[in-house]
Amino acid sequence: MRGGRSNVGRLDGSVSTQDAITLSVSGTIPSGTQNVSISCSNGCVAGTDGWNLVGNPYPSTIDWNSFRTSNSGTINGTYYVLNPSTNAYDSWNGTTGSAGRYITSGQAFWVEKSASGTTDVLFSESHKASSEAGGALFKTENEPSNLLKMKLSGTGFNNEAFVHFNSTGQYAMDKFDAYKLSFANYQIATFDPSNTTRLDINNLPEYGTKTIDTIEVEAKLPVATANYSITFSNVASFSNNLNVVLEDKLNNTFTDLRTTPVYNFSTNGNANSAGNRFRILVSNSNPVPVDFVALQAKLNSSKYVDLTWSTVTEKNNAKFIVEHSVDGKQFKQIGMVKGAGNSNVLLKYFFVDVNPVTAGLNYYRLRQVDYNGKYTYSNTCFVSGVDKESLITEENNTSASAITVSLHPVPAKDVLNIAGLTGETCTVSISGMYGDNVLSQKLSVENNKAVLNIEELKTGLYVIEVTDENGVVSKLKFVKE
Question: Which residue of 125, 132, 168, 205 has the smallest Cβ count within 10 Å?
Fold first, then answer.
């Protein structure tokens, strides 16, 4: 026994001293197959319902990975446990996390049921990990590759989050993502800008699906003046040809996490000095001409359009040709910005279009040209000539911030209304939380709106991609009741 639990160090193994405590236990020691009933009600909406507290019934450590495999049709792939030393929930998804793979005897842990109704989870002798008996609850596991760990620290607290690029990952929510269970006043999490879900473990596809992966980071902190730090570890597990960079959007700085893994920052009492202040940029540093951070456009107070973009790396980059279009299809050159040639640091660029159309949409893209004449295109973005706040950025035909298109009602029951569309038709594709496509359909657009019948969809969380006639894709999430 570890003695009295008034000292939380006995729970994580940092304190080895014992108290003079005697525990008497009577009864039959559980063995063989043990069934525990779990349930999910209220529609079993992912991330909201279906949470069940269960416990290891054996006088032996069990292996979560084995237990999860046996119960894969009943529970999702992550378990959660309250860590009293940080006053926050730790998690483990079978590959990474701060809770660890092995669950000690008698330990309670949270699981999320994957479907509505009442079902048993099964504990069996095959789940026991006798060689791990006596290990601390939060025992570490060998770290996988392409795993980034981040720890937010301040006076008297720390909190962790994880980003893992691997073959099972998806950009949509999947069974190996772990929710950030909101409990502490101080926490760090990653998130998708198109929804409010905060993640403790963000399970993403293997690097290479995009030219650059952008991961939004939230530092949840009290609105006060204080000093904090974020420590990034396991950066060395990424291939040497990958840049891993932290962007501080408040201070407008970029930090190479390979050379500077600890980032110190301060809050000043304003809400924007914490919150969604950071993002992580992962890009390939192999000899490709240019790695872009997405081109953005915004109408300024003079009704000119400010274009901004950044590069992570440049190789033989002669120039950027700035191109404009009124229909998103036929582009013409409106300017040129000289490139840096060769660079391995983040560079920022700026261009002003002083002659945008005053009605309708202004589309922009960059044609990056090498010294040898070869060229590649950036993402396409557009801005309205009337609405000064209108901005959509399209990266690899996927909207990075789908703020024009909106859905209602949410949650939806039988019909989903899609507003903010252009053109006469649009195409929609809906996938479930595990990335499986469940519906694809072409819709008519009238008065900038389309109506989709979702009556046949099962209750749950879905991702919808809406593609307009110009090929611009808006990606949003909704709940089906």
Answer: 125
- CA 39, CA 121: separation in Å to the nearest integer? 10
Q: What are phi and psi of 333, to 5 degrees?
A: -75, 135
The tens digit of pLDDT for each residue in 400-440 reads 333 368 888 877 888 998 988 888 999 999 886 545 678 88
Using the CB atoms, write b or e for 352-385: b if 16+ within 10 Å: ebeebeeeebbbbbbbbbbeeeeeeebbbbbbbb
Please state, in angstroms and rounded to a whole number, the distance separating the CA atoms of residues 413 and 458.
10
- Is the confidence at residue 150, as pLDDT, over 90? yes
| Spatial separation of the C-alpha atoms in residues 231 and 151, rounded to whole Å | 5
Rounded CA gap, 297 and 308, in Å? 7
User: Tell me, what DSSP letter sits at residue 427?
Assistant: E
Please name the residues in contact with 350: beta carbons below 8 A apart, sequence gap of 6 or more.
Answer: 306, 307, 308
Task: Indicate yes or no: pTM above 0.70.
Answer: no
Strands (E), 174-331: 178-179, 187-191, 198-205, 212-220, 225-233, 242-248, 253-256, 262-268, 275-284, 290-299, 305-325
pLDDT, tens digit, 9 for 90 and up, residues 190-215: 987 666 788 899 988 876 555 567 88
The CA-based angle 17-23-29, given to 5 degrees, is: 120
Tokens 């940080």 locate to 86
Residue whose entry in the numeric block shows the structure tokens 């999947």:
174
Q: Which two tokens stand for residue 420?
A: 């903010």
Give whole-number Cα distances, 49 to 88, 104, 121, 175, in Å: 20, 26, 17, 15
3-state class (DSSP) for residue 236? helix
Bridge partner residues of 254 (DSSP): 247
Quickly count helices (H) and strands (E) in the chain.
2, 35
- Give the residue from 379, 363, 376 showing the smallest Cα distance to 329: 363
Which residues 6+ apart lie within 8 Å of 462 measured at CB? Answer: 430, 431, 432, 433, 438, 477, 478, 479, 480
Q: Is the CB of residue 398 less than 8 Å from the CB of residue 408?
A: no
pLDDT, one tens digit per residue, over 218-246 is: 988 887 888 999 999 999 888 877 778 88
CA–CA dist 219, 191 (Å, integer): 11
